[in-house]
Amino acid sequence: MTSGSTPGLARFNTSADSEALATLHEVCASSAWGSKLLAQRPYATAEALFLASDAATAELTTEDLAEAMAGHPPIGRPKPGDPTSSREQRGMAGASEELKAEMLELNLAYQEKFGHVFLICATGATGEQMRDAMRDRIGNTAEAEREIVRTELGKINRIRLTRLVEEDKD
Predict the structure, then answer these.
(1) Mapping DSSP to helix (H, G, I), strand (E, B) and coil, where does residue 24 land?
(2) pLDDT digits over 2-24, tens only?
(3) 99-108, long-range: CB within 8 Å, 24+ apart, which pairs?
(4) How many CB atoms lie within 10 A of CB 19?
(5) Contact 162, 12 (CB under 8 A)
(6) Which of 43, 3, 4, 6 is nearest to 164 (CA)?
(7) Where are the alpha helices (DSSP H) in 1-96?
(8) Are 28 and 12 in contact (CB under 8 A)?
(9) pTM
């Protein structure tokens, strides 16, 4: 991962607060997370931004986690027209109809039990790996699952922030 200053990081550090907050909201839908990261600008390095993200994610309340998860579509159903969710869920793109149907069923059962979408860092995972993770995690307690969700959200946020700081377009 990039650890120094990059054009993307420089752009993020110098953008207007409203623009930076909108950018952070695309990374993570939690307003508490975005506000904490915004308040610590400028970041000397990408690693400093990642560490701030990790700390902010660790501090999210149950309500903040729910707000963050509301920004994520169910696995197997990326948001139409959203290249980020499509890219992150690429492992489901070539899934069989049987696997897609099973994921839909598991998603519904998971949402029924926990009251939110199944959140997993899907980048690089196959449809089968995501299905197996959901099968494993659906037996968790709400407390155990909340901490797994926090960990997965942290991974997703780091991947998205990495893309942000490595962008060198104007």
Answers:
(1) helix
(2) 456 788 999 999 999 999 999 99
(3) 99/127, 99/128, 99/131, 100/76, 100/127, 102/131, 103/75, 103/76, 103/127, 103/130, 103/131, 103/134, 104/76, 104/77, 106/131, 106/134, 106/135, 106/138, 107/74, 107/75, 107/76, 107/77, 107/134
(4) 12
(5) no
(6) 6
(7) 7-14, 17-27, 31-39, 46-58, 62-69, 83-88
(8) no
(9) 0.88
Written as one letter, the residue type at 123 is T
Q: For residue 21, give the amino acid letter.
A: L
**Residue corresponding to tokens 């039990």:** 113
The CB density around residue 101, as the number of other CB atoms within 10 Å, is: 12
97 CB-near residues (< 8 Å, 6+ apart): none
When mean pLDDT is compared across 3-7, 51-55, 65-69, the lowest value belongs to 3-7
As a whole number of angstroms, the distance between CA 87 and CA 164 comes to: 15
- List the structure tokens of 34: 């975005």
